[in-house]
């Protein structure tokens, strides 16, 4: 499986391609950053992000795209740009029919370092080790994009099993998407 | 001037086309809503928004696109979808070289009702009156899209004069993008 990881951002959008399967050594295929000028207008910046992502998709033909899930709790000014850059990345992949997965920052950190609260340096160090690189990829956005791709490759088997189980369950005519563990409505009010 | 107003949203993206110039009666060319299914995955929804916006651009060939400026102070869950839908709208217009303007909700309300704190009903009533419609456009997202287009047509002359003044000033060799009012670096440390 070849995965393009995208750490979305308007000023720096990290991109990294990793190939491999869970349980085997992974290979880095490429890493980089799509940059746009902070003093350019929003529309031009979004077009530049689109062109950059398209180039990476054309060149590396990933089977999956993994994008960082954006939360709006963070910095008010940067989160809008991050959300908009992520929309462009998701759009580019979806237009080609490439499945897109979203992973939270803590899922990514937990996947590559074992701790959801690891710092940038720790993530960079583990990415370097897991991909057998000579030095940590720079800037941090590039390392984060590779971490996203690794996270996706390692989480994919579990996610696939989950999806298969849900599909199987649904096809058997269970009671809707909430699944079999939905508590009975009359319960939970016995206080 | 023909303006496509876009009230961005993932579930309902309002679109409205208005033609006219400031100081003259305005004409509604078209109004509608681009909808995507809430239970569909994000990538598909963004592709559907893109296709919808492209269709409106193809059919109505606007000179300008006016999009509501999204703030992240609002509802945490919906703001991300709004930001992502707006990114797609801005991208579609910019790819074609159509200038995009962003207006805040209060700028739009102030433009069409005279008050930045007007409610939905008031905006709908004024859009109906200004465009000489038989009834307020529904849903509210469609009326808001028309209000955005009207706001843009009315604000455009002032914005153009401002841009011309800035361009003239810059071409005369002012001290960089921050303008002439940048304080001298040695100042402000005299405590």
From TrEMBL, chains A, B:
Gene3D superfamilies membership: Ribonuclease H-like superfamily/Ribonuclease H
Textual note on the cofactor: Binds 2 Mg(2+) ion per subunit.
GO cellular component: cytoplasm; Holliday junction resolvase complex
Recorded superkingdom: Bacteria
Binding site for Mg(2+) 1: 7, 141
Localization in the cell: Cytoplasm
Region (Disordered): 170-191
Principal place of residence: cytoplasm
Cofactors, names only: Mg(2+)
Family annotation (InterPro entries): RNaseH-like_sf, RNaseH_sf, X-over_junc_endoDNase_Mg_BS, X-over_junc_endoDNase_RuvC
Biological processes per GO annotation: DNA recombination; DNA repair
GO molecular function, one term: magnesium ion binding
PROSITE patterns: RUVC
Pfam families: RuvC
Annotated residues for binding of Mg(2+) 2: 68
Catalytic EC class: hydrolase
Active site: 7, 68, 141
E.C. number(s) listed in UniProt: 3.1.21.10
Keywords of the record: Cytoplasm, DNA damage, DNA recombination, DNA repair, DNA-binding, Endonuclease, Hydrolase, Magnesium, Metal-binding, Nuclease
UniProt catalytic activity: Endonucleolytic cleavage at a junction such as a reciprocal single-stranded crossover between two homologous DNA duplexes (Holliday junction)
Cited function: The RuvA-RuvB-RuvC complex processes Holliday junction (HJ) DNA during genetic recombination and DNA repair. Endonuclease that resolves HJ intermediates. Cleaves cruciform DNA by making single-stranded nicks across the HJ at symmetrical positions within the homologous arms, yielding a 5'-phosphate and a 3'-hydroxyl group; requires a central core of homology in the junction. The consensus cleavage sequence is 5'-(A/T)TT(C/G)-3'. Cleavage occurs on the 3'-side of the TT dinucleotide at the point of strand exchange.
Entry similarity comment: Belongs to the RuvC family.
Subunit structure as annotated in this protein's UniProt entry: Homodimer which binds Holliday junction (HJ) DNA. The HJ becomes 2-fold symmetrical on binding to RuvC with unstacked arms; it has a different conformation from HJ DNA in complex with RuvA. In the full resolvosome a probable DNA-RuvA(4)-RuvB(12)-RuvC(2) complex forms which resolves the HJ.
NCBIfam families: ruvC (TIGR00228)
Entry protein name: Crossover junction endodeoxyribonuclease RuvC
UniProt organism field: Streptomyces parvulus
Gene name of this polypeptide: ruvC
